[in-house]
């Protein structure tokens, strides 16, 4: 997929609230004698693209041919946006271009100061006229709404209705508690709180999530219904509910994550990528962004390399893993073991196991389980370190740690298609064999075992 996307350059139109993000990087080492507040010493200031402009930057980083259409003020920040973006901006005299100043101390955002106008624009018809001159040239249209007065109901409906006549997808990052102005769009990307306000329901937990996401699709006549779930990932409803689990390992700053999600979705749909795959890409894009400070864009290479660089992301608990497997229509292969000291025999065994299906899951005995099975001096390596070593192999898709003596409960929970064991189980009962469609026995490489390695090490130490 990435090789295909890297060759694409879809034309995407971004309309909405274009802003400037100012970052003030400071040192802080003392409290003011005048009031109980920190004294900040400015070290560096930097202006970045924010709001719809950050969406624009994300699309450019992905490789899209992007054009911006909007309204800015006749001020320094409006000029900054005009210089940075390939755009047509209508100038409304006396209007402030949105400026968000963030104070950063010790890699933490401690204060944000907003300087802006958020009344509805006075150039509504002029914007619609400009839109109708150009919209048919684009593969997708993205509405970036930050409730600053550009995307009025009249403008939104004119855009959506015109685009629908020519089958051009319209993606909306919504704001406010009335989504009726977005009716007929291809998709919206509200977070949980935004969806709750618009749907006027109490919660989106458990079964209520399916109810809410279907209601969102029906009430606002959407092709796809999406709700972003923060640390739980992305929920998608097309003909059924899909949960795409979050990918992030460490979260430093959530600024701009929503912009990266909708930019990746727009890029993907403009390239005719199926919606489920588009959501998976968007999830990875968000994971890259929240691992950085401030509003940043993310490239296809960063998304491509995310899982490669973070093999720990393959280590899941059984609940997380089940969510992933429910979204996959693939052949699941399962094997298990202690894998205390990973050796050549293990590598060849797992490589052969992977070839038996699409997704290879390795069940790993916990430290407590290994001690019960192997004795008080085992394991040599901790369960986390053993899991990381297994996850580092490209042919291992997921590692899940279990605490029982056998993987029976885990197999029953995950319901894999193929169960793999070593050839020494020939004519023996394999735990979980009645729960799977097929059991495969794989020959071990001769001369390799953890016990032999430990014996050699101990023998050399004695000599």
Automatic annotation (TrEMBL):
Classification via CDD domains: RfaE_like (cd01172)
Keywords: ATP-binding, Carbohydrate metabolism, Kinase, Multifunctional enzyme, Nucleotide-binding, Nucleotidyltransferase, Transferase
Residue ranges of every copy of the Carbohydrate kinase PfkB domain listed in the record: 10-297
Region (Cytidylyltransferase): 334-463
Enzyme class: transferase
Every Cytidyltransferase-like domain range: 334-441
Catalytic function, reaction form: D-glycero-beta-D-manno-heptose 7-phosphate + ATP = D-glycero-beta-D-manno-heptose 1,7-bisphosphate + ADP + H(+); D-glycero-beta-D-manno-heptose 1-phosphate + ATP + H(+) = ADP-D-glycero-beta-D-manno-heptose + diphosphate
Known function: Catalyzes the ADP transfer from ATP to D-glycero-beta-D-manno-heptose 1-phosphate, yielding ADP-D-glycero-beta-D-manno-heptose.
Family: In the N-terminal section; belongs to the carbohydrate kinase PfkB family.
Protein name listed in UniProt: Bifunctional protein HldE
Record organism: Campylobacter novaezeelandiae
Gene for this chain: rfaE1
């Amino acid at each position: 997929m990435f090789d295909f996307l890297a060759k694409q350059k879809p034309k995407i139109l971004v309309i909405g609230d274009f802003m400037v993000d100012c970052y003030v990087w400071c040192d802080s080492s003392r409290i003011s004698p005048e009031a109980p507040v920190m004294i900040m010493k400015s070290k560096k200031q930097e202006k970045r693209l924010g709001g719809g402009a950050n969406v624009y930057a994300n699309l450019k980083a992905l490789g899209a041919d992007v054009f911006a259409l909007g309204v800015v003020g006749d001020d320094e920040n409006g000029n900054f946006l005009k210089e940075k973006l390939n755009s047509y901006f209508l100038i409304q005299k006396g209007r402030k271009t949105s400026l968000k100043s963030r104070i950063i101390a010790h890699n933490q955002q401690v204060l944000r100061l907003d300087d802006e106008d958020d009344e509805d624009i006075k150039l509504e018809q002029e914007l619609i006229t400009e839109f109708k001159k150009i919209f048919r040239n684009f593969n997708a249209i993205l509405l970036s709404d930050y409730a600053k007065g550009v995307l009025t109901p009249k403008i939104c409906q004119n855009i959506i209705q015109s685009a629908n006549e020519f089958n051009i997808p319209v993606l909306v990052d919504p704001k406010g508690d009335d989504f009726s102005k977005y009716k007929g769009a291809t998709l919206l990307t509200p977070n949980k709180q935004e969806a709750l306000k618009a749907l006027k329901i109490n919660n989106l937990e458990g079964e209520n999530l399916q109810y809410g996401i279907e209601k969102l699709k029906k009430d606002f006549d959407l092709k796809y219904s999406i709700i972003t779930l923060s640390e739980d990932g992305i929920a998608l409803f097309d003909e059924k509910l899909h949960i795409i689990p979050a990918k992030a390992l460490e979260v430093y700053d959530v600024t701009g994550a929503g912009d990266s999600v909708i930019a990746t979705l727009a890029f993907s749909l403009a390239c005719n990528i199926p919606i489920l795959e588009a959501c998976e890409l968007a999830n990875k894009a968000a994971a890259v962004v929240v691992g950085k400070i401030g509003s940043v864009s993310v490239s296809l290479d960063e998304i491509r390399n995310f899982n490669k660089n973070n093999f720990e992301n393959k280590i899941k608990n059984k609940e997380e893993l089940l969510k992933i497997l429910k979204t996959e229509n693939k052949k699941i292969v399962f094997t298990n073991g202690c894998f205390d000291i990973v050796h050549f025999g293990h590598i060849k065994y797992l490589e052969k196991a992977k070839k038996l299906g699409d997704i290879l899951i390795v069940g790993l005995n916990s430290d407590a389980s290994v001690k019960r099975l192997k004795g008080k001096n085992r394991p040599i390596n901790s369960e986390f370190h053993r899991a990381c070593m297994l996850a580092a192999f490209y042919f291992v898709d997921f590692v899940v740690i279990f605490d029982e003596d056998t993987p029976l409960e885990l197999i029953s929970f995950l319901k894999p298609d193929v169960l793999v064991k070593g050839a020494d189980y020939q004519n023996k009962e394999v735990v979980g064999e009645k729960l799977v469609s097929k059991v495969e026995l794989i020959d071990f490489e001769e001369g390799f075992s953890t016990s032999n390695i430990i014996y050699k090490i101990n023998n050399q130490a004695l000599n």
